[in-house]
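In this supplementary section we document a worked example of the pipeline. Step one takes a protein sequence of length 192 as its only input; no multiple sequence alignment statistics are reported here. Step two produces a three-dimensional model, which step three serialises into structure tokens for compact storage. The input and output of this example are shown verbatim.
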Amino acid sequence: MPNFIALLVLASSLTACVSSIKPETKQSDFYDFGLQKPEQQVDFGLPLESLSAVEAVQHGNIRYRLAYKNPTQVFTYAGSRWSSLPVELLRQQIGNNPKPEARCSLKLQLVAFDQVFDSASSSHGVVQLQASIVERRTRTIVGQTLLSAQAPASSADAKGGVAALNQASASVLNQAADWVKATAATQSCQAQ
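The serialised model returned by step three reads:
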């Protein structure tokens, strides 16, 4: 009987030791575009009716492509994620300037949000937006375009990709603002 008790004590001691050994897990790195200053926010001159994203980019994964190997294959960084959805990162860059008197409104859809590697050490961020101006009363599309911007990444990793996507996002939103203002003027969208 004493051997049995000694065996039980030994078994419980070993169990306690083994359960205290845990594999080391790396915490994920979370990224966003930093705090936005009001003077950096984009104004479209029309009310923004909707800002959406295609399903492929509507998640927290930071995507990248290896254009030099297979440009159609999409990868995601294992230890890095967006702190919010990419469409929300864009929304933070847009000024809140409602224009209730406008005859038209704007719809934006995020269609690409990727870091693209041209080689193992060189990459850039690519952001594409589908912009549509809609006549509010009839729901007729009076203008539509696909806008694209890219910016070089300073490093071949998630951190470099995030900075490049931030810069490309600001650029494509400014392109959208210029396009909206020019198109809205030709369509008499400002006054109802």
